[in-house]
User: Fold these one by one.
Assistant:
Number 1:
Amino acid sequence: MPTAKRRVQEIIESQPDDATYDELIRELAFERMIERGIKDSRKERVISNEEMRHRIKAWQK
């Protein structure tokens, strides 16, 4: 598994040369969210779709 620094370099290098600072930050944040989700899933820290629907409805009130 690559180090965090190496993974950041890979993500940045994969972006177009004219990518903006905001686009780079967004890509890095997206990658981090994916990593966290996979880690949570492996540790079985998940909720059902029904529970998620319930939480979203509660937020909308």
Number 2:
Amino acid sequence: MMQVPLSHVLAVAALLFTIGAVCAASRRNVLMILVGVEFMLTAASIAFAGGALAHGNLDGQAAIILVMGLAAAEAALGLALLVHARRSGAGSAAIDAYNRLSGE
């Protein structure tokens, strides 16, 4: 059975993280920013899984469970923001529509 080297796994994770960071930084749409953050969380999970496999322990897999919980919380936050925008009458997913979230 052939095993993928850790350097290749980390290279894929770094590429995926870079794509997510560029997506999150360059977009003005809340959904696309959240998609970029999901890409970055997935890249972290891949790096944790590769490290756990290379070192033969389960610590990386335990970290993946935490990252999955964080991703679920981030998805819930995104849905809450979209529902708020729809109810407040903004009706847009543009990031500029969320300047009224300060409670005024």
Number 3:
Amino acid sequence: MRKQTLALLTCAALTLPVSSFAEEVEHYEGKESATLKEAVANFSEYNKKLEEVLSGELDAEAMDEIHQLTYTLENALGKINEEFDGLAVTLEEIHLASESADTEGVASNGKAYLETSRTVIE
């Protein structure tokens, strides 16, 4: 029984990816994106940085830099997605209000919609 257990453990260890035995990966906080405006600025800035690193040799140093950049990009994209989910709801409110000729609903939701959407594009 002991030999079978040892054999099973050996087989299991051999099927693990090599990366399982590598040093533990360091994690970073990334730059925060508290507002949509901040998220768009961070997204733009860090995409440029990523593009620059990707244009060179992807050696160990570049991979570490890319790893660090992705934390800020993930934070920014998360905030953008969160805000745009809300923007879709606001747009639907405008749509529904326009169907029922609700001028007050169109005006108030329209203002909120444009304020948020113009953070990303004019």
